[in-house]
Specification:
mainly alpha
Length: 114
């Protein structure tokens, strides 16, 4: 069996998908991909491996999108907390001695009514 297989890649630059593929190849990181062949092999393998994972787990893409969304939300909240000045003062907590048993009983009855 032949160890090296040669094929031709034809890109029609008037076709939007072909043009974008050509532009990606022109801008690719030459240190990461030494040739068009390496970039194309990587892209083909990643594409078909993802298709196989999606076939095995049809909800994989949805979970990936949800995870990415949750990560962005978490990062946004963390960043906001880092830059927001602390204007609030600590809230005093009630001790068990200061809470009247009758009030506590009424609060628990109210909560149980739901």
């Amino acid at each position: 069996m032949k160890q090296i297989y040669t094929t031709t890649l034809r890109l029609n630059l008037s076709d939007e998908d072909d043009r974008r593929a050509f532009e990606y190849l022109q801008r690719m990181d030459k240190k990461k991909y030494r040739s068009y062949s390496k970039a194309i092999v990587t892209a083909i393998n990643e594409y078909f491996e993802k298709q196989a994972r999606l076939t095995a787990d049809p909800y994989l893409e949805t979970r990936e999108k949800e995870d990415a969304f949750l990560k962005r939300v978490t990062e946004t909240i963390e960043n906001a907390l880092r830059i927001t000045p602390a204007f609030t003062q600590p809230v005093a907590t009630a001790t068990s001695a200061s809470v009247d048993n009758e009030e506590l009983s009424a609060a628990l009855d109210f909560a149980d009514s739901f």
